Each structure stands twice: as C-alpha cells, then as structure tokens.
Amino acid sequence: MRPILFIGGLLLGASAALAGQNADDLIRALGAERFAARQSAQQQLTELAQQDPNHVLPLAVQHYATTTDPEIRARLYDVMSNVVQRVVLNSLRGYLGIRMQQVFLFEDAPAERPADQPQILIVGIMENSPAAKAGLVPGMGILKLDDEAFHGPKAVENFSFAIRSRPPGTTVRLQVRDGDNLREIPVTLERLPPELEQGLDLPAQAQRYFDHWLKEQLQKIQPPGPAAERSNQNTKQAESPDSPRTGSPSLPRGR
Length: 255
Prior knowledge:
alpha+beta
C-alpha cells in the first residue's frame, strides 16, 4: 500500500495564518518547559498537519524517529495519528464487492507448490459491484493487488484491509488465476456501502491503517537493522508514556 500518496489529494490549502507557522519551530516547542506551551504547540502542529500533510507529516516522522524525549515522541504520535486516521475515517473506504474464502496450503512439500498458487478464492460477486463490472467471477483466485502479494493464514483479512485502505475512485490492478491462466484485471473501486460499514469497527481499522503507515514511513528512513528494531519497539512505548516530565500531568490520550 502507498497510503500517504492519497492524503495530499484529500486535504488541500493551508490558511494564511497556518501557512506562516513553521513546522520545525512547533515540533521544537513540543519540548518547551511549560506544559501549556507544549499543549499549544501540539494543537497548532495538528492543525497545520491537517492543512498541509505532505509537508508536515514527513517532518513529524523524521523527528519521531530521532528524538530521545518520550513526551515529544508521544505528542508527535498523537499528531500523526490524528491526521492519518481522520483521512481514513472520512475518505478511504474502498469497496470491491466480492465474497472470499481462505485457501490453506500444505507446508510439508513447498517444492511442489507453484509460486502462483492463490490463497484467496472468490466464492461470490455482489450485484452491480466494481468486481462484477470488471468481469471477476467465482472460482478465480487472487494473487496480487497492484504489486502487493497475499499469502499466509491472514491473506483474506489483509486483502480486505488493503481494499478498504484505498479511496473510492482508485483503479487497482488485480492479478488473478483463472483456471490455468494468469490474468491482470483493472478494477475501479467504489465507496463502501453504508449497510456494510455497520459491520466494521472503523476506528479499529483506522488505527491499524495508521500503525501500518507509520511502520512503512519509519522503514523508508531507517534501513532494516538493530536501530530500526529499537525504533519499532519504542513506537508502542510512546503510546502511553509514564509521566515524562517531573511535575507534568499525563498526556491526554483520546485515540
């Protein structure tokens, strides 16, 4: 997935007042001595990030990855989470319109298993859905969505998440196995119908989306290795800091 690429097209144009704010200055102010100043800086940074995410979010990720102050990390986490989850909850609800079944493969003979064996089987197509319009039919097996392959025991769950993480109107490429043939089928996603939203825990989906996004952004600036592993471990620790400053009240969580 490339979730951050969608954000700039959804939130446009900073106001004149916010445009004058310097994101670097606000990030530094997250470490101010006075609690009220830190709170104010976080609020202003959140507003600026909502208006200009393509500029502010990369800076926030960079500082999040390098700072050693647990309170600054926690505040940056909240700012990024607020902006990214807001986009997810308001806009990114892609819909394909298929029913799927997980295909479990035997692990005792991997050499005999073809590399293009799908683990997602289409068992039903919703009427008038994007899948129906694109010509998908029951019996096809899904291998890839764009360049992302889906394997393992959570293939169906991960594929569903990837579809919902894309905005309506996005055209995706599905690589499917149709009998003995491999095909690539373009499908233009639509918005998830309201009646289907009722069965989803959208806040939990948005949190999962954000966690995936943050991990992806950290990997871009930190090559795999011990340093990256420490940063990923610290991601969870930053969600609930223990009184990072003497005399300062705990951060309000509210995610």
